[in-house]
Every structure is written in structure tokens, then in C-alpha cells.
Amino acid sequence: MAKNHVFAGLDVGGNEVKLVIIQQLDDKDDFQILSQNREVCSGIRRGVVINLQEVSDAIISCVKQAQEQSGKKVKSVYVNIDGSHIFLAASHGLVSVSRADQKISQEDINRVIHAAQTFSLPSNKEILDVFPKEFVVDGEKGIRDPLGMKGVRLEADVLAIGCLSPYSKNLTEAVLESGLQIDGVIVNPLASARAVLTDRERELGVAVLDIGSSTTGLAVFEEGNLIHAAILPLGSFNITKDIAILLRIDIDEAERIKVEFGSCVWRGSKKKEKIKSDFLSERLQVSKKNLIDIIEARVSEIFEQANKELKKVSRQGLLPSGVVLTGGGAKLPKIVELAKKEMKLPSRIGLPRDFVPPQEDSSLAAACGLALSGFDLEDVSSASGLGGIAAKIKKVFHPFIP
């Protein structure tokens, strides 16, 4: 991997913009966070940019703070894309092996993946990335890396992931307007997965669930491959709104109550126990059990929707490495306990890995994963000399594919 280089990850989602700058430690596989900054931004709704100027201004503010803290100039970033407009499409490609000795080259692999991603799309949709699921050489299925093998016909089954073009263009415009260049655009749960999952988890079968403010991203891996992804239109701010409505308090009070007293599972013995806090007005009599019941109901709904997505690929309750919870919403106490109950899977909190000192903030998973992607791309490009589509495909997702 790159030594002494810095890379930046820009998380544009929920109601915040987050920017992380990281650097690899010398002669180690570990990384150091040089700066982490965030700005509240009302120009984003459910992961989609709705006000270019507000988002651009928030990015500019983050960059200014980051450069002051790190002493590094930020010129370009990896940025995530979020929202329920994200879609998946399975596709198949077929080419003839080009070399006279029938030995499969990198060029052949590039061509078959390009063939697989060449399919008809509505004019308002675009493909962001493609992920090879398996290759087939002369009818022999289940091949993960055909490079160097011999054959006449090469096929590829891929999973393409795309988005609505207007949303992608608005995101791109907001970033460029801030003065930054874009190194790559990555779907949010895949960025989080890069930061929090282990190779063994991806191999055995795992789901990462990134619970953000207004959306929850899901990515499912098995045998090292991405097999499913989805963006659920629910997040931790839905919990805050539920608390505000059902307890008849304002949204700021609801958020503070959630953070200070919230939990996903009730374990008390006094059902009428009241919440006491300096920031609550004396007229408010809030039952702690009622609060937790509200939170549990909404978080259970998120898990229910995630289960429906797992059912689409026949993996509900059938992932040996279980579900890894990350994002700001994963900070809720006892959420792992509720996840085990609702999803019938092993569960843990996913924190960004390989950082010194250890990173303890799950809300930075996506930003850290985006920044780590820069090292991945430089490592792959310098090691293999790949260009064009090969570099694009391997890109930041090479931990997930052969």
C-alpha cells in the first residue's frame, strides 16, 4: 500500500457532512486519523442532495477545519452516495479468449466484465460499479479468478450497482463546487463495509447494517463477494421523531432524551420510573419504559426490513458471521441484543478497523472506509498496472473480489 500518502473520505449523508483524513503508519498495516470533522447540513434529505449551496458550504467548512488540524492540503476525496434510488442488476457477459495459446489474460477479463455491464438502462439511470460473482471458462463454473487459465470461451456473472443520474450529478456538483476533485463515488454501505468487516467475515457470509440518520444501508457478502445491497428509508432520526410525537415534546428534547436515556431493550423493574434531567422542563413526566418501547419498536422495524432484504437472497438467519451494526444509530445501548433477537443472527458493533489509536466512533465508519479506499486503489494500480475498466472494477472494492 501507499506509504506516507494521505487520503480523504467525505461522507455526505443524513443531516451531516463528515470528512476524515487518514495516513498509513510507516511499515505497518495500520492507519492514523489526522483529522475528523463534521458539519450539520440541512441540504441533504434521506441521503439525497436537495440544496447544492448548503452542501457545498458544509464541505468547505469541513475542509478548512481538516486542513488546519492536519496540516495537509485536501485536493480530492472519495465520496459516498446514498438513498433509496440505489439499485442492483444481475448481468452476464461472454467473450472469446483472444490469445492464440488460449491463455486468459487481464485484457480478456476486462472485456468480459465490460460485456456484462453493457445492458440497456433508462436514460435517467447509470451504473456506478460492477462486482464479479463468478467466472465461467468453457462451461466450468465457480471460478473466482480466471487469470492464466486456458480456455476458448470466458463468461462472467456480475452484480451491477447503480443510481438515478440526477442524484449522482447533484452530489458531484456539490462536491466540485466546494473546490474538491472526486477520486471515486462509492455506495454508502460498501464504504462502511470496507472499514468494519474482516476478510473472514466476508468469506463465511456476513451482512453490514449501517444505521444512519435518515437511511440504513445494507450490504451482504459471501465467499468474498458482494451478493446483495439495499438502502432502507429509515434511520435514527425516525426514532427521534417518534419520541417527539408520542411524548409530545420538541425535536431537540427528543434527541437529547434518546441519547441520554435511550435503549433498545427494557431491563428495569419499575415500569413507572420517570426520566429526570436538567434539560427537561418540570411539566414533562416521561416514563423511561415508554421511551424504550418507542425506540425498540422503530429499531425492530429497521431489522424487519433488513430481514426482508436478506430473504430476497435466501440468507435470512443464514449468515455464519451474522450482522455487523455500524453508523451513528448503532450507538444505541442494547442494539446488539435486539439485533440477535430480531434477525436470528450473531451480531456485533462494527468500528473502523486498523486504526492507531483504535477508532471508537461507529458513525465514522463510512468516512473511514472511503478514505481507506484511496490506499486500496493505489495499491492495486501500482501492483498490477491496471487501467481502464480493470482499475475501475478493482478500485476500492478489491477486498471484496478476487
UniProtKB/TrEMBL annotation:
A biological-process GO annotation: FtsZ-dependent cytokinesis
Entry keyword Coiled coil: no
CDD domains linked to this entry: ASKHA_NBD_FtsA (cd24048)
Gene3D superfamilies the record matches: 3.30.1490.110, 3.30.420.40
Main location, first listed in the record: membrane
SMART domains associated with the record: FtsA
Bilayer topology: Peripheral membrane protein
Cell location: Cell membrane
A single Gene Ontology CC term: cell division site
Domain SHS2 as annotated: residue spans: 7-196
InterPro entries tied to this protein: ATPase_NBD, Cell_div_FtsA, FtsA/MreB, SHS2_FtsA
Pfam families in the cross-refs: FtsA, SHS2_FTSA
Known partners and oligomeric status: Self-interacts. Interacts with FtsZ.
Sequence similarity: Belongs to the FtsA/MreB family.
Biological role: Cell division protein that is involved in the assembly of the Z ring. May serve as a membrane anchor for the Z ring.
Protein known as: Cell division protein FtsA
Species whose genome carries this gene: Candidatus Wildermuthbacteria bacterium RIFCSPLOWO2_12_FULL_40_9
Organism classification: Bacteria, Candidatus Wildermuthiibacteriota
Gene that encodes the chain: ftsA
